[in-house]
Amino acid sequence: MSLLEERYRYWLRLLPASYRAEREEEMVAVFLEGSPDASDADGPRPRWSEIASVVALAVRVRLGGAGAAPRYLSWGETVRLVALLGLLFQAFLAVLDVVAALNTYGVIGTVHPSLAQAAGPLGSFERLANVLRSLAGAVWIAPFAALVLGHVRTAKALALLAFVPELHVLTSSVGVTFEALAGLLSPVVVLSALWTGFHRDARPARRPLWLLVPPLAAGIAVSALFRLVASPDLPAWWWPWLDLLGLASTLILGAGVGYVCVHIRSPARRTPSWPLALAILAVPVLCARLARLEHGFDAADEVSRTIMLSTLGQTAALLLVALVLAVLGFRALPAARGPSPEPPRTAYP
């Protein structure tokens, strides 16, 4: 075996064993034909384009490509569900941002004097910059809508555009902190799931248009609820449930408990994709919560200690539900062995 062939086979290990058993020899032969004069003395290596093609093929095969084994089909559905649910939550947060901006700038409701002062003088550049900054998160509505409507490429491009404002933490004058990076993890997970799960060999799926309604309705409802309950007299243990991470934890906990009930009462409706997707989405939320906990252990007053204990309880509950969901999801996965994948539409990308 030549050195170049050995290196090709090394990269082909990224592919599932069942796929390699049928196509490794053919793929190696095709790659070697492109370098007929390679000599071991020259230390030949696979081209970067060839490595990238193998990596892309491995992602497609392992995430439910054409004719993939049942287990890989399940993982593909899981990753696509992560992208869909993640974008749905980002769209929900975007609606909250829009409602908050409308309230801040007096379009709806009565503007608090402190908010009016922070918004900047009317007609000033400062005010315009604050308006644009307040509405930056609203861009997340666009990729979610595009994905529901079936425009996957548009959704991917719009999601990248929506992610750009999130990167301001990397250019902050106070430096990059672990807490800031943990906060970026959630949109990074959603973007990764969107770009890897919706590959060219993924099975097309039709999504009902009513999926566009929940983020809008929930955003308006939660905004109205905040105006009713948010007050200095609100018990301190409520506050960790009202911020961004608290809302994410509530939704994951609710969906997780709901799935566990379905899993117990309706065995025919068990699926690996829902519990695994919810467990994956819980990871960035847990990381962000743990990153913030370090600021609460030295709390001196009673209110701060209550908030910290409530946060600890929320984190523990989310961790427990995520572990249960992960176990149920892995148990529901089909057997590793299954029908061999069919060749992709193009032989080797």
Automatic annotation (TrEMBL):
Where is the chain membrane-spanning? 81-108, 180-198, 210-230, 236-262, 274-291, 311-330
Keyword annotations: Membrane, Transmembrane, Transmembrane helix
> Is Ubl conjugation included in the keywords of this UniProt record?
no
- List the source organism: Streptosporangium amethystogenes subsp. fukuiense
Q: Can you tell which superkingdom this protein's organism belongs to?
A: Bacteria
Name this polypeptide is given: Integral membrane protein
Q: Electron transport among the record's keywords?
A: no
